[in-house]
Amino acid sequence: MADALKPVSDDDLRQEVRAWLAANWHMKVADLNEFRTTPAYREWLNKVVDARWAAPRWPVEWFGRAMSDEQGYIIEQEFNRVGAPGSGMDRTQLYANTALAYGTPELKQAVIPGILRGEIAMCLLYSEPGAGSDLAAVRTRAEDNGAGWTVNGQKIWTSSAATADYGMLVARTDWDKPKHQGLSFFFLPMKQKGVEVRPLRQITNESHFNEVFFTNAKVPRENLLGKLGEGWKVLQTALAYERSAMGERARGPRRAGADAADSDLIALARRSGKLNDPAFRQELARTIAYRQLNELNTARAKAGLEQSSSSSIMSLGKLAMSRILHEEARLRTAMLGAESMLQGAEHPLADDANFLSLNAYFTSIGGGTDQIQRNIISERVLGMPKEQEVDRNIPFRSVRTEKAT
Ligand SMILES: Cc1cc2nc3c(=O)[nH]c(=O)nc-3n(C[C@H](O)[C@H](O)[C@H](O)COP(=O)(O)OP(=O)(O)OC[C@H]3O[C@@H](n4cnc5c(N)ncnc54)[C@H](O)[C@@H]3O)c2cc1C
To answer: Which atom from ligand 1 is nearest to the alpha carbon of 133?
Structure first.
């Protein structure tokens, strides 16, 4: 392996990655989501991490090469060119990035290698029945027990809670401070007595998310991220990574083995005889152009995103992706016409169109709703006046709610 700290030219780097991929990546992966559930993926991730391609912008002591953002992109481009996953985690791996930026040395050692290598599964313990868009209103409490914290309360919409080893938890540690100041951020071990996970059924008929109940669950002292009472700051960093990843990610059709050509919008337009319809072509071109534009805008925003700071520009990409996914689903349905009323494996194109129409809500709600992204853009990007918050500066204990605490 090249000396991790020796500066290398862009051309040399590209050659080095290409040669490494040619020697190590021999797989043809049709469905990346499915590949990610296999032992072969774990083996591959280990190779990528050991070769320091997983997080090249990170420090050398944390599996990185201390590279510039641009050089990180060269590596990602080469991985994408051959369809190999694993690189770019220094931009998109929100759990590892949050731990790296705010974790204690003990926590970093305990979780970062496992997260990068796909050995530690994670979930986000943010939303509660009364605190989704307004996360500063969380009521799950964490109390100091001398050796760490004891957690009581409830979370909801927790994706992947059933399989997670740790959850990134936002909990209230001080009820006498205003709502944004009394929060703290923890890595909570999920596989313990006192953590109960109950599955929920989604609109797509899948069941990825859950309710999570805590009854005297424990968090060790070294699992606090950032300072006690400064959880809001850590949360903003973690949310920026999440929104950035959602701004460029789009889930494809549900069926394994879906015909890639038919899944493509232009191929579908050709098949449906709509490719030569001038009005339809306009809509198609506009949607495809939006996707291209969003990719460029996301790349521009990322180039300016300093590690461990949050960027409101990321909200633009997330909002755009949500609109693009709804629009693509609408076009698919229009192209299929009456066929879109059908469902099931015998009607794969209709099944895909319906699934994508329903799944588009994932991006419009998860990680902060479209309305909330619009608020962020208006206040932080356009500089418009802030929304009124009557409870911002009063002790959380005194905030009026429907439910008494
Ligand atoms: C597929 C999926 C996966 C998810 N995974 C997770 C997860 O892993 N972990 C987790 O913690 N959460 C998760 N969530 C929860 C998600 O982050 C919340 O649902 C989301 O933040 C919205 O909060 P809420 O559901 O409480 O809606 P509310 O906050 O009750 O909002 C209801 C409506 O009012 C609007 N609204 C609220 N406040 C304002 C305002 N100030 N201005 C304008 N409009 C407003 C909202 O936009 C929304 O349309 C997931 C959600 C989905 C859909």
So the answer is: 29
